[in-house]
Amino acid sequence: MSDEAEAGLLKALQAALAAEHAAVYGYGVVGGRVGGQRLAEARSAYDAHRAGRDALAREVRDLGGAPVAASAAYALPFAVTDPATAVRLAAELEERVADVYSDLVRAASGERRGSAAAALREAAVRAVRWRGESVAFPGLAERAGSGAGSGTAAGGSASPSLSASATP
């Protein structure tokens, strides 16, 4: 792998790791508001994102990088005050995670690409479960439409994770 390709892969891994950190934080909020019927689903997603975060941190270290740290707190994209807004946040988290995994699929090869594609698929399936509808190409269609996605594949440089905040 060329130095340029390895740098691109490391950047995509770090972006996915940052998104996983944000998703773990976000699911803490979701779990506090989602209500009994969907609490198990929120716990399962929380555990999946923790596992994804840990795996990505190992991959970054394996490439000689220092894994990006989680922020102390994140600014949510909207107020989460009840089960309905908690469900909306969960869907948003999954769409944002799918967005960065689509970039990782593009940057990776071999087994790492397969793992990234699996993570993209899992996030897309969780987004459908939360939102109740799907998109044709998770991680890509959102960018072309309303601008909800903000990953690097579309030429943007904004972080697809929740906005880091200095205060909780």
The number of helical runs is 5
How do the strands line up in the largest sheet?
Answer: 1-2
What's the Cα radius of gyration?
A: 15 Å
Overall structural class, as computed from helix and strand content, comes to mainly alpha
> Into which percent range does the helicity of residues fall?
55-70%
Question: How would you spell out the order of helices and strands?
Answer: HHEHHHE
Report the end-to-end length measured between terminal Cα atoms.
Answer: 41 Å
Strand content: under 5%
How would the global form be characterised?
globular
How can the largest sheet be summarized? 2 strands, antiparallel
Poorly predicted segments: 142-161
Total count of strands: 2
Mean pLDDT: 85
Any chance you could write out the topology, listing elements then pairs?
Layout: H1 3-33, H2 36-62, E1 73-75, H3 83-107, H4 110-131, H5 141-144, E2 163-165
Antiparallel strand pairs: 1-2
If you had to describe this structure to a student in words, what would you say it looks like?
The chain is mainly alpha-helical and 168 residues long. It is 65% helix and 4% strand. The chain contains 5 helices and 2 strands, in the order ααβαααβ. It has a two-stranded antiparallel ribbon. α3 packs antiparallel against α4 (110-131). The longest helix is centred in the N-terminal third of the chain and has 31 residues, at 3-33. The protein starts with a helix and ends with a strand.
